[in-house]
Fold:
Amino acid sequence: MFESLKNVPRLLLEQELRPIQGHRFQPTGFADLGAADYRLHDGRRMLLVESAQSVANHLEQTCLNGSGPDIAPELDGLPYVKAKLEGASDAETSSLIEAHRINSPFIISDPGFQTAFLTLSGYKKGKPVDWKKAAETLFHFDPNALLHGVFMANLLDGRMRFPRAVTGFVEAADVKEAVSGGVKNNPLDPTGKIRAKSYDENVYSNVPYPRIEYTAASIKAYFNLDLALIAGYGLPGPACELLIALGLLKIQRFLASGLRLRTACDLTPSRDMDVIAPIGFAVPDEAVLLARVQAGIRACTEAGLFAVPPVKIIECPVFLKADEKPRPAAS
Structure:
């Protein structure tokens, strides 16, 4: 299926989007900055609608069973690591949903798992990293972590780092503000003087507020599947094909059902996806990609590339850290 991608360094995709209703949309916001509003060298006003970090989270979400921590049933057999917390919490988490993926302290701190990871990867302090073995090890325990990137800062001296193989972001061009506003109403007492005895925070009165949304001449999602990075790991053919199919499946699922980015940012594709490079490649639809991923899971399992069983379950004792005492004032 991916023969035409051989020796191609990047698969570059662009998808035009539009608000599913009306013309306004709400971009992502950043602390102490607000919306990322910027200009190109020619003066065109641009807006970052969704950052690469956020799109990565959306792409990961597409293959979960609900909100996780487990993989979607149709992807059964794809390896990952699951941690059952014991002590101050009885929650379950996994390398599929942890912010640090397989480097999560709930996972990598487990002595048995850490020993197995170090043994397979041959990673040691003071010695060069064997990146081929390291990639094989990460693929062995969690191919998703290899696809989305991981910085193993919590493992020994923290030199093992894998960048994202699939990246996406959403930009809008020729943007203008759409200024409006509203009010939070208190139907009982607009002054906010009537309060519950057990809750005396200042949240009761009517509160008017401004609102800034945007319109744009165009909104576009960009995706970059780094084929050279995947090929550079030296993984067997079935592993490389699985990573490519899985990356494309995530993109198709995100575009099909993951574009409700915020309350006031609900987007939809306005036309077919454009393949910028390589020219002539057509992205298969979701059903075809899912079948290819499932075939890849079977092929990698038969080749012994995955952990057995594929879901590694560890038990992680946790405690509740006490509040730190305030430091005494300087004399």
